[in-house]
TrEMBL record:
InterPro entries: NAD(P)-bd_dom_sf, SDR_fam, SDR_subfam_1. GO terms for molecular function: oxidoreductase activity, acting on NAD(P)H, oxygen as acceptor. This is 3-ketoacyl-ACP reductase. It comes from Mycobacterium branderi. Coiled coil: none annotated. NCBIfam families: SDR_subfam_1 (TIGR03971). Keywords: NAD, Oxidoreductase.
Length: 284
């Protein structure tokens, strides 16, 4: 307990899934939380995104830890709005120590128009850059930047089930996650002299809404016209070396808490795979 006591952390994509889990775990360890989410759907992304009600639930869960929390509906593609919201929240909470750039979408399907590429890339890479860059003026020595990557996004375009992350949206997602890897390494070198750390966490399948939706099921079971969750779960273990279909959001949050804490004070520029051996299996 209290591994990040007294720190302030901003988390994007915090309404549900990994982002909510990170917010709750960091709060349980003593951090005050700035929880941001778009709380709206994006047309090219066919599964529903988190809602305002979901973000309210995240707030309630953080408050149960006895920590302060500020929530706001923000699109990470809108740098000006993101900056205004973050500046105001940091002023209210008295500082910023941890940045968790987690917001992402994965609009899959060969029927998705080119806008799917734009939306996936803009949320998954430009949104990361926007989040980190508006936060940097607030960070001091000891600060930690943590970016959510993706094992699937790092695979070659022919790497997933002999196919790919389907369509323009999948291509945008994959490019964004590959660029996240290089971005975090370059930024870690840049910020090293200031003792600000930058790392990426690359999960395999995670038990969230990004995994559990019809387009993703079709990616894992292209042999079926309308695969169910049960159908897809037969194929999910293909990705990992360990015999599991997916990891829990908490498994990623444990890595995030470690990277946010002083326990990792000399860990920077790393690409941490929380993947049940998927990266090894795929030759990453």
């Amino acid at each position: 307990m209290n591994r990040v006591n007294g720190k302030v952390a901003v988390i994007t994509g915090a309404a549900r899934g990994q982002g909510r889990s990170h917010a709750v775990h960091l709060a349980d360890e003593g951090a005050d939380i700035i929880a941001l989410d778009i709380c709206a759907d994006i047309d090219s992304n066919e599964y529903p995104l988190g809602s305002a009600a979901d973000l309210d639930e995240t707030r309630e869960l953080v408050e149960k830890s006895g920590r302060r929390v500020i929530t706001a509906q923000v699109d990470v593609r809108d740098r000006a709005h993101l900056k205004t919201v973050l500046d105001e929240a940091v002023a209210e909470l008295g500082g910023l120590d941890v940045v968790v750039a987690n917001a992402a979408i994965c609009p899959l399907g060969n029927h998705i128009p080119a806008q799917g590429f734009i939306d996936a890339f803009d949320v998954d890479f430009v949104g990361v850059v926007n989040t980190v860059h508006v936060a940097l003026p607030h960070l001091k020595a000891g600060g930690s930047v943590i970016v959510t990557g993706s094992i699937a996004g790092l695979l070659p375009t022919t790497g997933l089930n002999g196919g790919n992350l389907q369509g323009p949206g999948g291509a945008g997602y994959g490019l964004a996650k590959k660029m996240v890897k290089e971005y975090t390494k370059a930024l870690a070198l840049t910020l090293g002299p200031q003792s600000i750390r930058v790392n990426a966490v690359h999960p395999t399948n995670v038990d969230t809404d990004m995994l559990h939706n019809e387009p993703m099921y079709k990616t894992f079971r292209p042999d079926l016209q309308n695969p169910s969750r049960a159908d897809a779960e037969l194929s999910f273990p293909f990705l990992q070396a360990m015999p599991i279909p997916y990891v829990d959001p908490a498994d990623i949050s444990h890595a995030v808490v470690y990277l946010a804490s002083a326990e990792s004070r000399y860990v920077t520029g790393q690409q941490l795979f929380v993947d049940a051996g998927a990266g090894l299996k795929m030759g990453l």
